[in-house]
Input
Amino acid sequence: MARIRVGILGATGTVGQRFVQLLADHPQFAVTALAGSDRSQGRPYAEACAWRLSGEMPAAARSLVVREPEPPLDCDVVFSSLPADVAGPVETRFARAGYPVLSNSAAHRMDEQVPLLVPEVNPDHLALLDACGDGFIVTNPNCSTVMIALALAPLATRFGVEAVLVTTLQALSGAGYPGVASLDITDNVVPFIANEEEKIERETRKILGRLNGSRTEPAAFAVSAQCHRVNVVDGHLAAVRVKLGRPAEPAELRETLASFTALPQELRLPTAPAHPILVRDEPDRPQPRLDRDAGRGMSVTVGRIARDAVLGHRFVVLSHNTIRGAAGAAILNAELLLAKGYLRARD
Amino acid sequence: MARIRVGILGATGTVGQRFVQLLADHPQFAVTALAGSDRSQGRPYAEACAWRLSGEMPAAARSLVVREPEPPLDCDVVFSSLPADVAGPVETRFARAGYPVLSNSAAHRMDEQVPLLVPEVNPDHLALLDACGDGFIVTNPNCSTVMIALALAPLATRFGVEAVLVTTLQALSGAGYPGVASLDITDNVVPFIANEEEKIERETRKILGRLNGSRTEPAAFAVSAQCHRVNVVDGHLAAVRVKLGRPAEPAELRETLASFTALPQELRLPTAPAHPILVRDEPDRPQPRLDRDAGRGMSVTVGRIARDAVLGHRFVVLSHNTIRGAAGAAILNAELLLAKGYLRARD
Amino acid sequence: MARIRVGILGATGTVGQRFVQLLADHPQFAVTALAGSDRSQGRPYAEACAWRLSGEMPAAARSLVVREPEPPLDCDVVFSSLPADVAGPVETRFARAGYPVLSNSAAHRMDEQVPLLVPEVNPDHLALLDACGDGFIVTNPNCSTVMIALALAPLATRFGVEAVLVTTLQALSGAGYPGVASLDITDNVVPFIANEEEKIERETRKILGRLNGSRTEPAAFAVSAQCHRVNVVDGHLAAVRVKLGRPAEPAELRETLASFTALPQELRLPTAPAHPILVRDEPDRPQPRLDRDAGRGMSVTVGRIARDAVLGHRFVVLSHNTIRGAAGAAILNAELLLAKGYLRARD
Amino acid sequence: MARIRVGILGATGTVGQRFVQLLADHPQFAVTALAGSDRSQGRPYAEACAWRLSGEMPAAARSLVVREPEPPLDCDVVFSSLPADVAGPVETRFARAGYPVLSNSAAHRMDEQVPLLVPEVNPDHLALLDACGDGFIVTNPNCSTVMIALALAPLATRFGVEAVLVTTLQALSGAGYPGVASLDITDNVVPFIANEEEKIERETRKILGRLNGSRTEPAAFAVSAQCHRVNVVDGHLAAVRVKLGRPAEPAELRETLASFTALPQELRLPTAPAHPILVRDEPDRPQPRLDRDAGRGMSVTVGRIARDAVLGHRFVVLSHNTIRGAAGAAILNAELLLAKGYLRARD
Output
C-alpha cells in the first residue's frame, strides 16, 4: 500500500526535527515536503537545518528543499509545528485548500469545530470533522496537558473527577531553540512559562469534555496549574492532586491507571505504546532522565500515588514533551485519522 | 559586653559550616567549641573539615580542635546540626546537662514541650520553656517549612487559612554532603525527599498552632506537600495554593505579605532582615539564583500572587535553605532567646 | 551454535549494568552468572541492583541470583568491572582457576604478560597469551585512554608520533555511582580525577607500544594528560595536541582518521562499529550529548583538526565512556578473542 | 576630591551590568551616563535593563536615562562593553572627541598605538599614550587571556618562557546574554568559542611583549589555545602547560606565583587585590564555584603545579571572567591611569 505523503511545516524547529526523526521509518507515512521560515527556504534540509537531536538526520530528508509554508505543497497531509504567531492563518489556509492539518500549535486548539485529540481519551471528538470536507484541522494538546489528560481519563471514567491541581516541572526542549538562555536556568528554576498555565487549565477541560452536537462542552471540574521551567533537557513532570467523585483506595487508582488501554492499542496503531500509562512503584519515580523514553517516548509514567490531605489523592506523572507531548502526539492522531478513514492520498 | 560562647554540634557538615560562617562576625555570639563525628575528633577544624562554601574558612575557627558531641563542651549554648539518627539522644543529654540547645535537627521538633520556633511567627511559643531550667531545646523548622510558615502567618492573621497545598522544588544543599549523587540529578528531577512531605505537613501546623497551657494545638487547616529535588545548589522554591477564610483580592494578599514585620524587626535582632517577606512583581520571580541571597539569605521572596481555580489563591515562595532554612534560622532563634532573657553565660 | 556463557563481576555497578545491557541480545554471549558485593549476594539481580540506565533491566538478568565474586562461577568467561581495590587478586584467582578474564579494571593493565587491548590498534599484543593456559587476563584501557589510542593509531602509522598532549573533560558516569556529589559539580568543574592523568600517560604508551617477545615496549613518545570532571552524564572529551614525525596537512590527518578501519571491521565483530573514527567537520563538534551514541557508543568522534602553534597539530576527540570506554570495549575484546580461538565453552 | 564621572557604553549587557555593580560604591569614579542599544535608549536604566546579577540594581543607576552611545556624553571617561561589531568605530569616535576610553571590547586590542593593559604585568605599555591627546583608548584583554598573562608574567621574569599551551573551560557568562542556549550546554560541552583561540594566542604575546618606541613587539614564544564552553555560570578555568627558559622545581614556580605583587598593589589601587595570584595546594583546586570570588573576583587562583612530560611544567588557573576578565579589569586599568595622571575631570 502506498504511504500517505506528509508535509511538515516548521520543519527546522525542535518539534519539526522530531517529526522528521519519528517519521523516518514510518510504515504509513512518508515525508515528501518540508517547509520553514524565510531564511531556510530554497535550501536542502541538510543545509537549512541545524540538526540538534542525537543521531544523524534521516537520509531521505537531507535533500528535500525547504519550501514556503503555504499551499500547495507536494503532500497529502500536513503536520504543523509552526510558531504560535504564524500558525493560525497558515493552518487555516492549508485546511481551506483541502489539506488535513495535524497541528501541534496552540492557535486552533480551542476552536469549536477543531478536535483537540488524545486518541486514548477522546476519539469520539473526531465527529466534529464530519461536517468538514477534505481539509480540516486536528490539534494535539500542549506538551504538559497530554499527560495530565491521559492520567485523568481512566480516573474520570471510574471514579469521577471534581477538581484537578497540577504543578509542573518542565524541560528545556519545550521552549524550542534557542529557547531558554543557559544563564537563566543553570543553578536555577524559572517559575513562569508564558501562557502555559492557562493552556493546561482550559485544554484539559476540553479534552475531557463531552461532545454535544457540533461542539464540545468542557468538563465541569476546575483545573489549577502552576508551571516551572527546570534544568532538564527532555521530559515534563507534573505533581498532581485530584479530587475524585467518590472515595477510593490508592491501590484502586494504581490498578485503574496501570490497566488502562484504549482504542489506539486495540487498533494497534504503529505509534501507540502497549501501555499508555506505566505505573512505577519505587518511591522516587518517575524521573525525567530515566522514564522519558518509556514506550519510545509515547508512554506516560505515573508514580507516588497516595492520599492527599487537601484534595484526597495525589500522584506524579511524566512524559516525553517532544514525543508524546508534541510530534508523537500528532503522528498518533494521524494514525487514528487514517484508521478511521479521514486521510487518503490526494490525487 | 562579653559574647555568649557557642558550641556547634555537627560542625563539619553543610549546615555546620554555615553556622561557622554566619557566626564569624556575630556581635553577640562567639564560637568556642566545635564537635563532630568520630573521624574528625581530635583534629583542628581546618584539617578535619573540607570547607565547601564560597570564601575562606573563618580564621578563628581554624585552630579549634573538633570534640566529641557530648557534654560538657566549653560553651554557654549549643547549636546542633547533627544528623537525624544521632541528634535525638545527644541533644537531650546536652539539655539535661543544663545547656540551651538550638537545634536544626528534626528529632525533637514535634516534642510537646519543645518550641518549634519562627521568631516572626510564633514567639509566644517560647512560653513552653518556662517550665524548664537552664537546659532546654528550641528547634527551627525543616528547611522548606520555614518559608511556608512565614508566608502563611500574615495571611492567617488577616484572612484566616482553611487549607494549604505546597509543591516544592528543593535545592541540593538541603541533602547535606555528599548528599545527592550527580548522576541522580543532572538532566533530571527526583520527585522524592525522604520524610520531607510529612515534615512540612505537620510542622506547618505546629508553628501556626496555638499555645494551650503546656502544649501547642496544631492549626486546624489541612496541609498537603509534594516535594521534588531539582538541580539547584541553594534555594528552595515552593508553589503554594491557599484557601483563605474569607474572600480577598490578590492585591490584598500582596500588601499583607509585603508589609509584614514582626518582633525580630522590632527588636532589631542582628540577623533579622528588614523585610522578612519581599514581594516581587515580575512575572518570572522568585528564582533561586537571583533571590536566595535577599536579606543576606534571611528574607523569603514571594511572587506570582494570583487567583487559583481550585483553592482560591496561589503564589510562589523562595528562601535560602541553609540560611533562613537552617543555620540562620537557629541563630535568629538564639538572638530572640537572648533578647528575652533565656540565654546567659554559664559560670 | 551455543553461546559462550558469561559471568559478570561487579554486576550492580555503573559499568556492570552496561555489561548486562549490552550483552542482553548478544549473538555470541549469554549472561549466566552475576557477582557482586556482600550486600547484593544471595538476592535476585532485580532486587539487588538499583538499575540506573535508561530503559528497563533486561528480563533474562532479573532472576539471576547475585553470587560472590570468586571461582567457580557458572560461566565460560568472566567480565570484570570490580572496584580497583578488590579487582587485582580476584581477577588473578579467576585466571588461575582457568577462566578467561576480560577486565575493565586498572589492576592488571600494566602487568607485563597482560594485553592492554584495543582491537583496532594492537591485536598483535594477544600473542602475550600464547604462553598462558585456559585462564588469562585481557584488559581494556582506561575510559579516556581508549579514544586517544584509537585516534593516534592511524596517525602513528602514517606520520609517526613524537609527543602527545591531552586535556580531558570527563563525564560523571566515569566515577561510578554514587560517584561525584552533585554539590561538587553543579555550576562547577573539578580539575582532578585521582590517578587518571598517570593512567592515560602510561596506558597510551603501552597500547601503541611494540611487542618484543614476551613483553611490550612502550611507545617512545611522551604523553602529557591533564584531567577535569565536568557536568556531563556520559561522554568523555579530550583536546589533543600531537607532534607528528613528519610535516602533514590537516587535510591529510582528516583523511587518515576518517578512512581508518582495522581488524574488527574486517572480521565483522558484532560490536565493532562500521567506522571506529568518525570525523565531523562542523566547527563546534564533537559534543558529548550529540555524539556519544555514534556507532551505538562504539565510534569515537574527532573534530576541529587544525594546525597547532606549539606542537604542530591539534584536534578534539570524544567517546562514550561507559561503552567504548568500558563495557563495550571489553565486549569487543571478547569478540576478538573468540574470533581468534582464545575462548571456548568450558566443560 | 570630586569623583571622575564615568559613562558606560553597552550598559544593559552582561559586562555593562557588572560595570554598574562594581562602580556603585567606588571611591574615585561615579557613574553619570549610561548608553545602550536603540531599544533601550530614552528609558530609565531601571526599565531598560533586565538586571540579571544577584542583588539589586544600584539605586543611583536606576533613574539614569539610557543614551545613544555617541559623543558627547555627560562624563569624563568612558567604559565600553559594546558588542564587537559596533565597538570599533564608536570607541574611535569617543577617543577623537577627547574621551579616554577604557574598552573591554576586542576591536582595538591589537591596534599598534593602543595599550592592551594588565596593570600588574605591563604598566610600562602606557607609554604608548604619550603621543595621544586627551582622548585615547586603553583595552583590557579577552576574559581568558588576562589570567594566563597574570600567571605567566612572574614566570617569564624569573625563568623565561619559551612556549605556552592552554586549554580552557569557559563559563556561560562569557557569551553575554542570552548567549549560550540551554539546550546546547545542558549535559554537554561545546568545544568551540568563536575567535577565542586566536584572541588568546595573539593577546598573550602582545601583553607579555616589549615596548619598542611607539609599538609593542610581541613576545617571542608560541601560544596554543583550545577553548571549550562548559556548564558553569561564572569562572573561566584553563589547564596550562609551559616550557620555561631554564630548569625549575615545581616548588620554585609555586613560590614565584604566590609571592607575586606588582604596581597596583604598591599603589594600593582600590580594585587591586592584595594577592593578584593565589596558589592553592589542595589537589582538586581551583574550582569555579569555590574560587571565582577570591579577592572580590580580582585574584586569579592557581593550583596543580607540577612537572609535565611534554612541555616541562603545568598548572591550572582560574579567574572570574566578568570581574578580573572584563569589568573589573577595565576598572583597575582606569585606576592605574588615574594614579598615573592620564585621567582628569573634563571641564
